[in-house]
Design goal:
12 strands; single chain; 3-stranded antiparallel sheet; alpha+beta; 14 helices; 5-stranded mixed sheet
Length: 397
């Protein structure tokens, strides 16, 4: 074994403050992209806003997880299409995405809003009737998006808790390959049965509509439908859940901005954009593999090399967002990359925005005296996971 120290910095990089991206990002944004050591090898790290946009919108950087050099961040089976079109390039990506986007249009999101508002009110009713202090992560932030995406897919209510747990295991960086694979298999078996049931006996849900419109016409296979449903379930609730809890934490720590929102609820819409930019919870799951040699801001990235785009670094780029570490609900946060960029922009972005706006406005309206039940320094953050968030958020009122 060599005693020569590894010259490459380790990835992920540590945070000195849980409310800010890793300190190293500010310095890295002043330099060309560099290579970092990741589990299983090495990859380029891209931190500037402009460079991240280029990587995410340049077909020389492949989203296909079967490409040589593709950085493996989630320990899933190596078969193609495991996470549906999220890990594909065109033309397959475009073919499947077009089918999926029929379920995530602005019109359908608007139609879902009353149901989301009802779910939020039901969860708030439970909070009001129960004891407090209470953990807002377990009792509000996690259940809401889980319920929304499960209802959209047509998952029976009694199975929703299992899906929440399986998704958390799949996205954890602490779970071993065996545990991750077991959760993946269990989720896949259930969705396989559910897709078969909805194909045979359609109902008014997302899986049924995709089955009726595309599987029946031979445009979508049963396996592709299962993979698509799995992607929606994993991506659709975990990210929104932790964005909710972190957003609540931000507002609890800033009574002045919270008071502004109470006085003018129309501010919730721009506030959501700033909260998405500020937290940038997709820490390192936006990855690519170069399929050609590319010159990127002074770095020569070779074909077959992996690339990690640091969304938190890009969204805290001082050249785009002055004083980026300050949460400013009046900031124009347009152009933030919390949902990605380009052809792989998150298909559920409009749904997530709506859920955040509805739940934050309803929560603070229902509980005007909502406050932390522990000192801020005792709030526990999720450290070793692809999606940043909180372990728990004890609150009272």
């Amino acid at each position: 074994m060599s005693d020569t120290p590894d010259p490459l910095p380790a990835w992920p990089m540590p945070r000195s403050c849980p409310y800010a991206p890793p300190d190293a990002y500010a310095e890295l944004r002043r330099e060309p992209p560099l290579k970092v050591r990741i589990r299983g090898g090495e990859a380029w790290l891209v931190t500037r806003h402009a460079d991240v946009r280029q990587v995410l919108n340049d077909d020389r950087f492949s989203a296909d997880d079967q490409q040589p050099g593709f950085p493996i961040r989630i320990q899933l089976p190596p078969e193609p299409g495991v996470m549906s079109f999220n890990r594909m390039d065109d033309p397959e990506h475009g073919r499947l995405r077009r089918m999926a986007m029929t379920e995530f249009t602005a019109r359908r999101t608007r139609a879902l809003r009353p149901e989301v508002e009802l779910l939020v009110e039901q969860l708030l009713d439970r909070l009001a009737a129960g004891p407090h202090p209470v953990d807002l992560v377990r009792n509000f932030a996690v259940p809401l998006p889980s319920l929304v995406i499960a209802r959209m897919l047509g998952v029976p209510e009694e199975d929703e808790a299992d899906f929440t747990e399986q998704s958390q295991v799949i996205l954890s960086q602490e779970a071993g390959p065996e545990e991750t694979y077991a959760a993946f298999v269990e989720m896949s078996r259930f969705l396989d049965r559910l897709a078969a049931q909805r194909t045979a006996e359609p109902r008014d849900d997302l899986i049924s509509r995709l089955a009726t419109r595309y599987v029946a016409a031979g445009e979508l296979t049963h396996e592709e439908l299962v993979a698509m449903a799995r992607f929606f379930l994993v991506a659709g609730h975990e990210t929104t859940a932790h964005q909710i809890s972190l957003s609540v934490l931000s507002l609890l720590r800033d009574p002045a901005q919270q008071a502004e929102l109470r006085a003018d609820p129309s501010l919730y819409r721009p506030a959501v954009e700033e909260l998405l930019r500020y937290w940038s919870i997709s820490q390192d799951n936006q990855v690519r593999a170069a399929v050609a040699d590319v010159e990127l801001s002074g770095a020569r990235i070779r074909k077959g090399e992996g690339v990690i785009v640091a969304i938190p670094a890009a969204n805290h780029d001082e050249s785009v967002y002055p004083d980026p570490g300050r949460l400013d609900l009046h900031r124009n946060a347009a152009g933030h990359l919390a949902f990605g960029y380009g052809a792989h922009l998150c298909p559920g972005a409009s749904l997530a925005r709506m859920e955040l706006e509805v739940c934050l406005s309803a929560l603070f309206a229902r509980f005007p005296t909502l406050r932390l039940a522990v000192p801020p320094e005792q709030v526990r953050f999720r450290r070793n996971t692809i999606v940043y968030g909180l372990e728990e958020l004890p609150v009272t009122w």
